[in-house]
Sequence to fold (246 residues):
Amino acid sequence: MSIQYAPVVATSVTKQIAEQIRESIFDGRLKADDRLPTEHELADQFSVSRPTIREALKLLAAQNLIRSRRGPTGGTFVKRPTEEEARADLTTAATLLVSLGEFDLAEIAEARHELELVCGRLAAQNRQPRHLEQMAAEITVQKDPELSDEAFCASDVRFHRALVDAAGNSVLGFVMYTVIEALQPVENMVIFRFRERQKIIGQHEKILAAITDASIKRTEKAITKQMNYLRTQFAAAQEHRNRMTG
Fold:
């Protein structure tokens, strides 16, 4: 495949080259597993030195857009990211944004509530026996009186992950990965001292029963009840924090 690139100006040459190649990937001119021109060929096209091209390729590799392979059939190729890698990138970005204060707990709770309602409706329609078994298994884990706070929070995450999986929608599953794997643990870290385990377990049991019975209305009601309870605990945690720092 031969793609012609426009000349670049002197300022931030490396970045401009990387952006042009990235645009070629995003608009489909370069597809997953396509081989890029050699460093020498790219240097000629962009009228720059090979070290400059090498630095631009490093930028693209850092963004997980390209990969290199040695040997007779080697070269630089457009990377085909795995779903796991893409999810990990999302989780890292979301965790960073939370740590920087870009998301507050109220926004997280609101977004999680609305998204989980959608997943719950679909789960009531599409759930398979394995999903119900996974949720039931986590409830059993949560009932262990010797379970540590950390292990309880991890089980809570797995319960809601199983709920999302039960929805049977891969796009929602991808979006919710950030909520479940990155944002929900942040919630748990803030409120684990304030929430009552037995209430959480009881709420999980009602969610599972509603999904098992394929009742969309009861599923929505059970999810909303839990989300409202968590909002109350967020408020208690915030009030406690204000008292400690006030």
